[in-house]
From TrEMBL:
Top-level taxon of the source organism: Bacteria
Domain Methyltransferase: 43-134
Gene3D superfamilies referenced in this protein's UniProt entry, alphabetically: Vaccinia Virus protein VP39
UniProt organism field: Paenibacillus contaminans
Any single Pfam family the record assigns to this protein: Methyltransf_25
GO BP field: methylation
This protein's name: Class I SAM-dependent methyltransferase
Amino acid sequence: MTKRLEVERWNEVFSDLKLGKPQGDFWLEKYEPRLASAQDGPVIDLGCGSGCDSLFLTERGYRVIACDFSSKALEIIHKYIPGAETMLFNMTGGLPFPDSSARAIVADLSLHYFHWDDTVAIVSEIARVVGAGGLLLARLNSTRDVHYGAGQGIELEHHYYEHEGRRKRFFDKSDLERLFDGWAIDVLTETDMHRYGKPKICWELAASVRW
């Protein structure tokens, strides 16, 4: 699928959503002591979608930059979370932020749509933007996420599938340890979340860039 078609598909997804104001599941709450170091700078919500995490953060006084490559997603942010700044870009082209310009990045279910080399490059860009000691909080698809596509369709790469025109990656623990080699991983745990109709199994990660 070309990037243009992918953008069009996600714009259609967010246009069809009639969710009203975003509702989060408060997964970031336990990381507030870690996020305190980001109070003097922006927290980047990378792949913000409809803005559940941006809402959580802005309501607690953080300066948030909500980023997505869907203009329709950012329209939702503008409507319901006017306190958040927004940026429209595709993260496979790099992150348009200076080195060490943010102390924390949140990537909630947004890092598992890419070929492995692109995923590695995105993680490298995250490290560049948060700088030494900077924080990443992320949730990523688990290989046990059978309700949402794990193991379904054509396997394009190890744990990376195309199913019904959509591409998604699913991670096991060794995949994530390889992806974040060189980072200080403080939390890496498999958990379930209930934002959607069925329980979703995902990995929750808190990691910082080594000095």
